[in-house]
Amino acid sequence: MNIQRESELRSKRITAMPRSVIHMMSALARDVDDPVSLSWAKPVHGTPEHINAAAAKAVKDGLCSGYSPGMGLPELREAIAVKLRRDNSIPARPDEVLVTVGAIEGITAALAAVIDPGDEVLLPSPNYSTHTEQVRMLSGKPVFVPCIEEEGFRPDIAALRAAVTRSTKAILLSTPSNPTGAVFNEADLRAIGDLALEHNLTVIIDEAYEYFVFDDAVHFSLASVPEYRSSVISVFTVTKTYAMTGWRIGYVHARSDLVFEMNKAHNCMAICAPVVSQYASLAAINGPQDCVEDFRLKYLRNRDRVCERLDALSEHFSYQRPAGSYCMFPRILHPDGKNSLEFCKRMLTEARVSTTPGVGFGPGGEEHMRITFCCAYEDIDRAFDRIEAWLT
Ligand SMILES: Cc1ncc(COP(=O)(O)O)c(C=O)c1O
To answer: pTM for this one?
Structure first.
């Protein structure tokens, strides 16, 4: 078949989607001898044992061979509603909860329920790379609104307001943020809620890292405020909270009519979330929570070490101390850092340390690199010893 005909057979929309820089770096890392990774947002520790055991028991008891209801197991949606009331101050009912295949499918379902082709979605940026492509995949238009780097990557409310047009339908953000580590404060989130009410927009908030906040930062769920609740879709996941990236369970809270619409999209994408993983998530949410605090303390210790090591390289990098998540977004001051992709590729092949080029996180991400610190503690020094030797 000739090449032109082959390309005509493909969707223009998907063909235009850039390859993820994270996957590009992972592919490159396969040819590097013993690389150290500061690039995956995937915790290195395993899922806690009581969660694994609950999943094994569900399989043994023959509970996992069929579909669950599309919206999720009733007992899991009930447990999630209790968790949302307890930890997020969202007075949730089970009919306002949809269990999804990770937060990622929840966001796709949310966007599918809210936008039509050509609608604009505002993204406070640098933003999680997949959010951009999810909007594009649904034929929406991502509109990047730069955050204020010098203020810890706070959202720029005036700039968001100025970016609203007649086509704007939604604002999509993550807090705590991947890639910057910013935690949007209550006042800023309320200002975003006000903007949504004024212009009849939906705010889709990816709260994947809700439990990982440091120092005096507080995670605030905008849907906890009655006047904003009907304008907000909140997306959560067990992936990060309980180190369960492979189980693929997330969940969404929204108005019940929106959940009904999202479930139609979810039905097209997945029918239901994996049933064995729903049982594992039930054990995670209902079980002891000390593992979550253990993880948080590990990330805090790791963050502090990364910051110490970066302080010693202040000629080459400046950074905003992350208040949450396990990501940070240093600015590359080194003259070669203008092209973050080339810089990170060289760091990988020459220093054998993998980071993620900032250009993957929206146009404002250039001249930065994303570092994740969910790695083993010792890997931080291994990585920075190599980076230091490479730069000096
Ligand atoms: C901000 C953010 N949202 C969503 C996801 C994906 O979550 P899940 O594994 O629940 O699909 C990630 C993963 O890195 C993330 O960083």
So the answer is: 0.97
